[in-house]
Amino acid sequence: MLKKALSQMKETGQKSVFLWAFKENERARRFYEKHGFTVDGTERISDFDDAVEVRYIKNI
Questions:
Q1: What is the pLDDT of residue 48?
Q2: Into how many domains does the chain fold?
């Protein structure tokens, strides 16, 4: 599903995509890193339970 979404975004002319992941969710973070996303150093506090989120980016 991720590959399909990235492919469709690329077809629209998008150059990059970003997403947020909970900092403590190592499983999700490994998944995104495996698929070429990198942390860009930006963090925020989530509206959900005040958890810390990190931003990932990927050039497509």
A1: 84
A2: 1
